[in-house]
Amino acid sequence: AGGACARGRPPPPPPPPGAPARGGGGAAAAGGVGEGTGEFRTGRPWFIYWIRWPVRDVLGRREGLRMTSAGDASRTPLNGVVRLWRPGLVDYEAALAWQHARVEALAAGVEGESLALLEHPPVYTLGARGNREHLLTTPDVLAARGASVVPTDRGGDITFHGPGQLVAYPILDLRGRSLGAATYVRLLEAVIIETLDAFGIAAARVEGRPGVWVDDAKVAAIGVRISRGISRHGLALNVSTDLAWFGQIVPCGIPDAEVTSMDRLLGGAPPMREVEGAMAAAFERAFGVRLVEDPESLTDAPALEEVAHAG
Prior knowledge:
alpha/beta; ten-stranded mixed sheet; three-stranded mixed sheet; 13 strands
């Protein structure tokens, strides 16, 4: 496992400030050294990181440079503005295509960071390391009920998305923001907790259980992918979701997990636009950014699909 010492080798000193954190913190999937779980990988001696990170700190962050791959040099400089998209109900595959298009545009320096707040038609998604045994029925049975099953490359196990669930897809330059995977997931949890607090719901993290919980019931799930230092996928908050859909799976691979929603907790769901507004405000505070709504996102879902396929 990453971060383990070879037999007989003394343990490395603790990483300096700014170095990747040991261990994960939530459902993250990624490739490359220092991405995904944020662990040290055994492919390089520990002392390489001990030397590399202070140098990067001195020559990189303090001088406003980023010592990353050559392709990063073309990225649009971070200016604190994140483009907000709120298209409504969007097919899961179209949202995936949109995410890939935004990641490529951000990596190439064509555009800056983005955040989409939307809903999906009924769909079950299986994470990169998910267990298919946690799908308790067949895809054909689900298709007959109007739901699809889609394998995906995010972290985490299997979950459900559907109408009444607010999904957030941040496309952020985490490397440019000096955010590791574990810190990023904690910030997403903070966004959810603050959003719920705006409606009088006291939610919290639970050690060893990803997502956000109210007592013993899970109200929101998190599953992300980090590639080239850029995030995609994100979080899902149950607002007025039909919770019966979760009966067809072991949600997030946790057998004894109950699932809940804002509707159940409050005895009635607030309007989705109000929840979107609260989440947008919480996101701005957590990440220190300003969200600017894209005019195209004010139209119906086909506008996002058109942008996604054009990308």
